[in-house]
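G., before I forget:
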Amino acid sequence: MTEIDRRDFLTRTAGGLAAMALVPEMKAFGGFSLNETLRVGVVGVGRQGREIMGELGKIAGVSVVGVCDVDERRLKSGLRRASGATGYATVGEMLSSGTVDAVAVATPTHTHREVAVECMGSGVHVYLECPLAHTREDCIAISEAARSSKGVVAAGLQGRSNPVYKLARGFFRSDSVRDLISMRAQNNRKTTWITPSNDPVRREALNWKLDPARSNGLAGEWGTQQFDVFHWYTGRYPVRVHGNGGVRFYEDGRTVHDTIACSLIYEDGATIGYDATLANSYGGRHEKFFGSNAAIKLGWSHGWLFKESDAPTQGWEVYANRQQFHNDEGITLIAGATKLAEQGKLKEGVGLPNPSVFYALEDWIVSIAEKGTPACTIAEAARATVVGIAANQAIVTGKGVDIDLAGL
Amino acid sequence: MHLSLTPAQCAPRRSEIDLGSFAALSFEAMGCRFEILIDVDRSGLSRAECAAVCEEMRELVLDWHARLSVFEEGTIVSRFNRGRAGDAFVLDDDLFALCSLCDRLRLDTDGAFNIAAGTLMEAHGFRESVVDDLDGLSIDKGFVLDETQRTITKTDGRIRIDFGGIAKGFVLDLIRNELEELGITDAFVHGGTSSVMGMGRGWSAGVGDGMTATLEDLSLGVSETDSRVVDGSGHVMDPQTMAPATSSLQRVACVHKSAAAADAYATACCVWPNLIERLGDGSCTLIVFDTESEPIAIDPLGVVRPSPEDQE
């Protein structure tokens, strides 16, 4: 923690605002106004794209007017979710129609470069799902296009706009955990990673995540989002990664590992331990910071602070909601705790009302309205993606890989 | 309600089925537990692919769960419920199709099934928020659908819609369509055991009192008047009296090609028992459980059987 961070935090808590420490910076919740309806096109309307369409529908002043997908069935399904929207088979057609002000890209990772560069070149605002790309070269190309883009370009590393994560970062950077000892994260989810289809050509196209040539594996596709939380909190990037993995469960001929583990190492020796599997759901997806005063556990919709018994008590803790986990007691980190307490809703298990992607999209829209900088820039996403690519290489080869962020 | 998830030909209990030949997935959604079973051997797909199909169906259900929620502020349903009379809400094609289906089923049932009964659910304490003044309100024409503009408009600000009486059946119909498109012809899905869909082989669903319904490309919807009770009154609402239904019927099970229609008809018969004769005229089977008499099966589809236990 810097001295300025520490001083700022002490000043705020000393101000007697007991619950203030539980309230994050919430610009996204404030009033913002778009002068007129923002016309958004969504490119790629598989599961993620449809979720994006649903979340955009919750934001006032936003209208999904265009839907684009090369897969006819998905395009048809997407159009049924966007009343009055026009369907396009290519991004070029959508952009040249002149009917969209902004584009959200949720195509397969390996196609991001082509789609994103075209969108950014046309001057529309762009939201690009993460990981940014499946190669370092593509990350650089997308970064260059973003730098010369006239629109607001946001990347979908969702931790950076998540109210719980923003709140917890305030605690982290104000020294609540004290000396950072180690970091761990996992993503366990029992799922096949298969998209079913009875058309062989379509099946091949849809199941890119199981093709080593097009996929960054679990470390890249899932890990990137989580690695970035550590980058954002610590303000640093790991320099080397070791890992291993295998196909431990799905005996269906796949070669992309269904179970992985890796260690991302910082220059000073600090490490992030990461593991992920498609074979078991226990513990789900979370990130943990272990410090000498406390640990922080983040679970995307929820967050907790676990204090050591010798850590100093702060005034606001009297009002905090607590949750028991076997022998440990966590202080719930939730956005807008004061308001929730007033409404009698600050109770065990309370979490965010919307999925993370909602806050990332809302942040992008607010940035467009305010002509500001989004919570996650393409440059930050490029660096996180390259960390994920390196982790996948380490896991696939079984050899340590240096993480090269030069030029990013 | 007892529900046995068993193929009818052999009618074993669930514990006797070789579940090893099925891809199965269960999950919580829409306030209940859904279960999906797909026969791997009859699907033409690998086990992992069948498991992936189950996952896709789970996503479909969860997606509709989120879209139809009256508890989440951002959904179009919640926004409509908070809206004023005359406010037109634009619906996407899928949601408009669901609202149109509900309106057709309202007409089919003389108004006994009505998603605007959500108003009465609130008025009678089944929701956190409360509509406390029903004076002069009619829910029969509580909203207007505009096919051209794809909009829904309240006729009275107090109107609340609630898809709880049809949502599970509706998603089961969507699942059947999806499974058929994927070439899967043998599967069984249920939501909370009260909405059930069987594809392919005849699946035997126990409906209580020694009876089973054989579901061979058919669905079952069950409505119970006292499955949820507040202040001594059940959650099935009578749009005519604007109060909880007071008939002596305890439970109605309906077997129909469409799971949505089965759900709606079962509810409608619980509300107004005089609909039983008309609705049971050939398109569906109705099994009626009355607190004052023996169960009755009106079975034009020929699907009601004694349960295996009774046969023994």
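Residues 47-68 of chain B form the longest helix (22 residues). Confidence is low (pLDDT under 50) at residues 1-16 of chain B.

More on Monday.
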